[in-house]
Amino acid sequence: MEKGIEESRSGINLPKNPQGTLVTATSDDNLKEIFHQIRTSKTPAVINYGASWCRVCSQIFPAFCQLSNKFPKLSFVYADIDECPETTQHIRYTPTFHFYRDGERVDEMFGAGEERLHDRLWLHS
């Protein structure tokens, strides 16, 4: 394993994030807690729903991590649909990104595209 990299239970390598704006949902209960924090803190947030077996998810994930450092006012969350099956059963495509402002979901994006993701993050930060 590279220095500065952690492996999540899903098998996706998570870069250690010194600013702490990127968290990983490790279970349904954990994701429910994260939803509660998003609703009560009213901090802008983005949730990346992905899967370890999804090639496109693996391709966009490093950019998602890098962008978490460029947008420190946003909370970044990664949720693997296999680790959180109850709370992610509404997700039909991976990756799916949900954007939250003032505790409410205000936008979503399907699929990858680093530039598209950057633009959405800029819009919601």
Tag the structure with descriptive keywords.
125 residues, alpha/beta, 5-stranded mixed β-sheet, globular, Thioredoxin-like_sf, Thioredoxin-like 3-3, TRL33, Thioredoxin_domain
Gist?
With 125 residues, the protein is of the alpha/beta class.
How is the secondary structure organized here?
Layout: E1 5-7, E2 13-15, E3 22-25, H1 28-41, E4 45-50, H2 55-70, E5 75-80, E6 96-101, E7 104-110, H3 114-124
Parallel strand pairs: 3-5, 4-5
Antiparallel strand pairs: 1-2, 4-6, 6-7
Helix pairs in contact: 2-3
Write structural notes for this entry.
The chain is an alpha/beta fold and 125 residues long. The protein contains 3 helices and 7 strands; from the N terminus they run βββαβαβββα. The protein has helices spanning 28-41, 55-70, 114-124; strands at residues 5-7, 13-15, 22-25, 45-50, 75-80, 96-101, 104-110. The strands form 2 sheets. The chain has a 5-stranded mixed β-sheet with strand order 3-5-4-6-7, with helices on both faces. It has a two-stranded antiparallel sheet with strand order 1-2. The protein is globular, with a radius of gyration of 13 Å.
